[in-house]
Amino acid sequence: MSLLHVLILAIVQGLAELLPVSSSAHVILAEKLMGFDPSAPEMTFLLVMLHTGTMFAVIVYFWKSWKKTYFSTWQDFKRQAFYVILATGITGVLGLALQAIIKHVFFGGASSFEIEHLFSNSKLMAAALATVGIIIIIASRFDGKQTGEINFKRASIIGAVQAFCLPFRGFSRSGATISTSLFLGISRQKAEEFSFALAVVLTPAVIVKEFYRLIHSQGLQSSQIGHLMMPSLFGMVFSFFAGLAALKWLSSWLEHGRWYLFGIYCLAFSVVVLLVS
């Protein structure tokens, strides 16, 4: 893979990751068009490194608002941290349970099964895109009517919905969690802040998992890891800047009642995925 390929994937990832349009679906389609196998460990690791770049973009972009919401007092920090941990814990438990169900029901309990094997399934990805598109469009009807805050029940429901985003590429995490927040009556700003706070907590765990998978499945030596790491770091930097631009776009459309347009895009892109794949 050349640096040009990494640059293209980084821009696609950075722009799409923080918009509710499923960056994974866009990156996987781009990988296929460039002749790469999206389920290969080195490609999933690159994708995770690109996610890392956008994670740092989230931290930089939301830091000021998080200081007011999450770090204004020690009591606020404890309460908000509890909700983030609660939602993430539910995501992890349900995500693992969902993976086990998929493995035993659809793959006969094969010991060689890994959830990444689903990433190359274009029909499944298109279905996930269409589903989240419909959810976003419906949620937009609730947009502008919310004044609620995050609480125990709402955080638990958001965490449960987020679990379905882990195995199904195309099921946008931000689209699903923000839309769920709108359904539950949470204000636009709080929904956006909480969704991306969850992303910052979840991403490091995914990075560690994919790095372990890369080493375990390939038996790579340190020199080989370094060879893969450099282009991935290059891509991470570019996905960071693209992610900042995407966040400004998302915030603008969410605040101005254009959330439904992301849903329409997901529906249209699901058709593209089917046609191109």
Structural descriptors:
mainly alpha, 277 residues, globular
Explained architecture:
With 277 residues, this protein is mostly helical. It has one domain (3-276). Helices cover 77% and strands 0% of the residues. It has helices at 3-17, 23-33, 41-69, 74-106, 122-139, 152-163, 173-183, 188-218, 222-255, 259-276. The radius of gyration is 18 Å and the shape is globular. The model has no long low-confidence stretch (mean pLDDT 83).
Fraction of residues in helices?
over 70%
Low-confidence stretches: none
The string of secondary-structure elements, in order, is: HHHHHHHHHH
**Main sheet summary:** none
- Span from first to last CA? 21 Å
Count of the domains: 1
Beta-strand proportion:
under 5%
Kindly name the structural category.
Answer: mainly alpha
What Rg is obtained from the alpha carbons, in whole angstroms? 18 Å
Average the pLDDT over all residues and give the rounded result: 83
Tell me, what's the shape? globular
Number of H/I helices: 10
Report the strand count: 0
What's the structural blueprint in terms of helices and strands?
Layout: H1 3-17, H2 23-33, H3 41-69, H4 74-106, H5 122-139, H6 152-163, H7 173-183, H8 188-218, H9 222-255, H10 259-276
Helix pairs in contact: 1-2, 1-3, 1-9, 3-8, 3-9, 4-6, 4-8, 5-7, 5-10, 6-7, 7-8, 8-9
